[in-house]
Every structure is written in structure tokens, then in C-alpha cells.
Amino acid sequence: xxxxxxxxxxxxxxxxxxxxxxxxxxxxxxxxxxxxxxxxxxxxxxxxxxxxxxxxxxxxxxxxxxxxxxxxxxxxxxxxxxxxxxxxxxxxxxxxxxxxxxxxxxxxxxxxxxxxxxxxxxxxxxxxxxxxxxxxxxxxxxxxxxxxxxxxxxxxxxxxxxxxxxxxxxxxxxxxxxxxxxxxxxxxxxxxxxxxxxxxxxxxxxxxxxxxxxxxxxxxxxxxxxxxxxxxxxxxxxxxxxxxxxxxxxxxxxxxxxxxxxxxxxxx
Amino acid sequence: xxxxxxxxxxxxxxxxxxxxxxxxxxxxxxxxxxxxxxxxxxxxxxxxxxxxxxxxxxxxxxxxxxxxxxxxxxxxxxxxxxxxxxxxxxxxxxxxxxxxxxxxxxxxxxxxxxxxxxxxxxxxxxxxxxxxxxxxxxxxxxxxxxxxxxxxxxxxxxxxxxxxxxxxxxxxxxxx
Lengths: 268, 176
Fold this sequence. Notes:
The complex is a heterodimer of chains A (268) and B (176). Chain A has helices at residues 2-40, 43-47, 49-59, 64-86, 95-133, 136-142, 147-186, 190-200, 203-231, 236-267. Chain A has 268 residues and is an all-alpha fold. Chain A is globular. The relative contact order of chain A is 0.15. Chain B has an eight-stranded mixed beta sheet, with no helix packed on it. Chain B is of the alpha/beta class and 176 residues long. Chain B has three domains: 1-33; 39-132; 137-171. Classes of the chains: A mainly alpha (268), B alpha/beta (176). Chains A and B meet through helix 3, helix 7, helix 8 and helix 9 of A and helix 1 of B.
């Protein structure tokens, strides 16, 4: 009797684990399907480019302020910290290289993606989740309008377009912030700051790789936000949970993928 | 939010992004200065390349004229064979020196080309015969100590000895 109870509880635990794993895999598959559907039905978002334009405004333009302000402060902090370390080795002239390489290679794409997930990703999830809750998506289907072509695809492309632009802006503004701290405030030589930077930052190896990273993050963050919204249970609680999940999963995915991408980029 | 206003803002956004990218490429990167177009490959063999890496610059008179394309180890002669990709705009005589130098005291290493006087020019696939290895700091220090020791041994011959040592290092083979 006791033995069979133990057996039952083991079975139940195993079933629980199995259920969770299959659930995750199922959701991953559903997300991948949504991704392919969004790409297949993306013709309309280019034919009626106004749809995509509106979403670029909502995701990209509206994120400008937070991106620019945080980039400025990140750049200034980098310059302060970098100077503090570099001057110990008597190479404070290399501060321009330090700031620009950190921003262009890593912080630009990654921090932009994290901010994007928080600023634009949550908005996308909440909007689509609410559309689903209020049955707008079903209404579209009733009117023979494909909700993936009309709602998902334009938002996807808007995210993919916005992210590299935001990341480039982040890097540039961050470097300007670093410049403001390093040159007028600390007194590093102006010429050394720029010339060392230009000698050590490679357009293909550093700037292009940063750009590639930000495009990948754009795809990942937008897709996660879209899927979480599309998949959210049509209740107030479901939408709120989906929004939270968007931020958590996007952030983790960005950091994990960043490691893999960096490993590949440094290896080649 | 009407349509034209959205268009305007998106236009500003995209223009800002393009300007930032252009700024990164021009002001931060070095797209303008060191663009190397068509290249031809020549090889050079070294006994010791120090910490020379792929993509290290090849300079002549301080101007970047190419990149190190490949470094392989030749097991027949136990030497490093370095492939240099040199810009097609620049021709070098066949008896050009290819020396490995260090930028600054601890900086990165690069290949310095010093043009010779030959009338035949280097072309694709040629091998540069006259090379000089990277300076190994330990070797240089021990050499210095060695010369100091011999100096204190016999004061009168010392200056000649030191001079001879310096000459021999310039020619590229350390005297031990």
C-alpha cells in the first residue's frame, strides 16, 4: 500500500516534469511557427508600408528618449571608470578606444535590446494581448483579414528596423558622452582621443559586428514580445503575466545570444 | 496622430540612425583612411615572429600598405611563413626588407617594409628573402648584460666590442 503510494507520487512528479518540458517545447514550436507565418505574410506590411511606418513610430521613435538619455550616461560612466583604471598604467589616452570599443561591440547592442524589451516589447505584448482579450483578432478573422499579416508582421518588421537604428544611436551618443567627460572634464588630449579611436576601431570587425548583433536582437526581442502577446490567455491576469514574461525572456535571451554571437565573432 | 506627422517623425528617426551609423563609420572607425583595395600576396619566412597576428598592419615608411593575411608554420625548415597582402597600388623591389617591429614599447607588432634597390618588382606569390625576426625582450636583455660583462673584463677593447655587437644585431642575427 505504502509502496504503491510512493510509486504514484514518483509517477506524478515525473509527469509534472514531462508536462512542463513538453509545454516549453510546444511554446517554442508555436513561437517558431508564428515567426515563419510573420515572414510569409509580411508582403502586406511592405505593400502597405504605412502600417509598418506607424509601428516604427510606436516602437522606434517613442524609444528615442530613453535610449539617448541612458546612452549618454552610460558613455559618461564608462569614461570615468575607464580613466580611473587606465591612468594607473599611464595610458589614459587610450580612453577613446576603451569607450568606443565597449559601446560599439557590446553595450550598444545589448543595453539597447534590454531597454527595447522594457520600453517597446512590453507595449507590443500588452497591445496584442488586449486585442486578443477584446476579441479584435477574432473579429479580423471574421472579416477575412489575416491578423498575422495585419497586426503581427508590421510590428515585427518595425522592431527589426528600429533596433539597429537605436543601437547605432546608442553607440554614437554614448561615445559623445564619453568624449564630454574625457576631454573637457578630465583633460585627455582631444586629438589623442579621436585618433586612437580611429586607429583601433575596425569598421568591419567592430561596427558591422555590432550592427549584426543588434539586428539579431531586434528579431529576437520583437518576436518574443509578439508571441507572448499572441499567446496570452485572454484575461487581465493573463496579459499582465505575458507582459512580465516578455521582459524576463527577452532579457535572458539577449544576454545568452550575445555570448554565443560574441564567441563566434571573436573566433573568426 | 495623423499620417504626415508620423511620416515626419519616422523620417527624422531613420535619418538620425543613418547619421549615427555614418558617424560611427567615419569618425569612430577608419573607413576613410586605411582602405585597402586590390592586393597581391607575397610570403616571408621568419625564425621568430614574436606575437605577430593575422590582420596586423604591413607598413612602409609608417604608412599602412597592407595586412598580414596568413601565418603558417613550416615543419620542413621549422620557421614561420607569413603571407602579406599588399595593396596593388604599391610596388616594392624584389630585395625589399620585411622586418617585424613593435609599435611603441609594448604595442602590437607589425611588418615594416624597407624598399631595396632592385629593378625587378615583387609580384603575386613571390618570397621576400631578406627578413628580420621580432625582437625578443629577454634575448635583448641578456645580450646587453653579456656586453656589459665583457666591457668590465677588458676596459680598453670594450667600445669596439659593444659597437660590433650593435652592428650584428642590426644585421638581424644575435651573436649567440
